[in-house]
Amino acid sequence: MNKTTGNLFVIAAPSGTGKTSLVKALVESTPTLSVSVSHTTRPKRPGETDGINYHFVTEKEFHQMIEHGDFLEHATIFKNLYGTSRKWVAEKLEQGIDVILEIDWQGSQQIKKLFPDSISIFILPPSMEALSERLHKRNQDKPEIITQRLADVRIAIQHVPEFDYVVMNEDFDHALVDLKTIVAASRLRQKRQCQKFAGQLKNLV
Predict the structure, then answer these.
(1) Taking the domains of the chain in order of start, what are their residue ranges?
(2) Residue 148 has what pLDDT?
(3) Tell me: domain 8-36+97-204, CATH 3.40.50.300, correct?
(4) How far apart are CA 9 and CA 47, in angstroms?
(5) Residue 118 near residue 109, CB atoms below 8 Å
(6) Which residues of the chain fall short of a pLDDT of 70?
(7) Which helix (DSSP H) or strand (DSSP E) does residue 186 occupy?
(8) Fewest CB within 10 A of the end CB: N or C in the chain?
(9) What is the full DSSP assignment across 116-128?
(10) Running DSSP on this structure, what letter comes out for residue 201?
(11) Which residues have C-beta within 8 Å of that of residue 78, sequence separation ≥ 6?
(12) Contacts (Cβ under 8 Å, ≥6 apart) of 103
């Protein structure tokens, strides 16, 4: 059996859709699957831990990392900078570990150019009303930021056709099953399986 490189999954969603909770549950229940921890200039929220939720850096540090080519992708979201570590992702994929990037549609476009075989998933909220309720309930943003986030949803939704899969998070458990199904199916793709079982295939021909 040959060693296979990992799959790269890109998961995007509007803020408040439940993406982070779904990804956490997916990683906890799926072997050899890791989520990339992004670098950000966003202030740390209550309960967040540096290196677990994000790598929190200054704008100066972030721009230095851009200059050094440390990011696979980076984007500005609500005046804060976010970026994905090139080295960390490359090491995990080389180890045969599947990697999830929690990024927005801008980052997804960049990743698709670098990794055409990456698998992109967009998570939808059931409605704007439900999304607004979630954003207000979690009490993490000022009212003007919530208004901004809701306005941004309409822009993000326009990019849904660019993604390989779409999951509706109306029911958490059903959405999680959908994500698990996508991961399982991706691990059985022809290119990956032919690489993994190259020796057996050669003997069968």
Answers:
(1) 8-36+97-204
(2) 83
(3) yes
(4) 26
(5) no
(6) 1-3
(7) helix 172-186
(8) C
(9) TT-EEEEEEPS-H
(10) H
(11) 145, 148, 149, 152
(12) 10, 11, 12, 38, 73, 75, 82, 84, 111
